[in-house]
Amino acid sequence: MEVGNNLKILRKRLKKSQEDVAQDLKLSRSTYSGYENGVAQPNIDNLVLFSDYFKVSIDELVRKNFENFSENEMERLEKGLMIDVKGQKLRILTSVVNEHEEEMIELIPMKASAGYARGYADPDYLKVLPTFNLPFLSKNKKYRSFPIQGDSMPPVVEGSFVVAEFIQNWMSIRNSTPCIVVTKDEGIVFKIVHNLLESTQSFQLCSTNTFYKPYFVHANDILEIWKFVNYISPELPEIRMDDHDLSRSLQELQKEVHELKSIINK
Known about the structure:
The protein has eleven helices and nine strands. The protein is α+β, with helices and mostly antiparallel strands. It folds into two domains: 3-78, 434 Repressor (Amino-terminal Domain), CATH 1.10.260.40; 105-232, Umud Fragment, subunit A (Ribbon), CATH 2.10.109.10. Strands 2-1-3-4-9-5-6-7-8 form a nine-stranded mixed sheet. It is elongated, with a radius of gyration of 27 Å.
């Protein structure tokens, strides 16, 4: 484990002494010094203590060697952002191809959607999914089709399927972009996305149905983001007239009423 050296690096970046950190954490200086120097390994309680104090996950603290981190990576780590939001490192994305080595659009059935957050990168999960092709879409982009549940995103109704484009660089997502967001806890959600990565390392997710309140999801809790392209619906969206159409319809109705009155009077 790299805990000792990582603790030393984090402490020095805070410009604190071993005595300062030991006092903050209510440990003896000799105990904390022993952890930094590798004389002893911290138990789980102290790992949680260090994780909260330095705002670094236990996994990062134990598994990574911060000596190999660039300054940019250390800044992201200290902000609590532990993933590559710019997509500079290759994201693992399993795809299904046809006999001509052309990528197909995998359709996630409603029954399979609950397990997507666990199987999204598993070839065994994806290879049994139904696939289709939309020839008018770009061959240079990756698409997938996701089921929609609930009534939070009208006019896209429950039972529809959203076709969406895989987003490699999350920094490129513009505010008010409709997206499929795959999260660790909620799985597949379809929302209007506002990009707050620069300020809070998170996204605000909003519904078009104002009954549902916006909420925030930290980037670390997101597995994938797919940008809305189109959708397939079992229902025809409600048709709404604009003011001009409504006025014209009223005029035509008034004309028909006038003609009926004329016939009756005769």
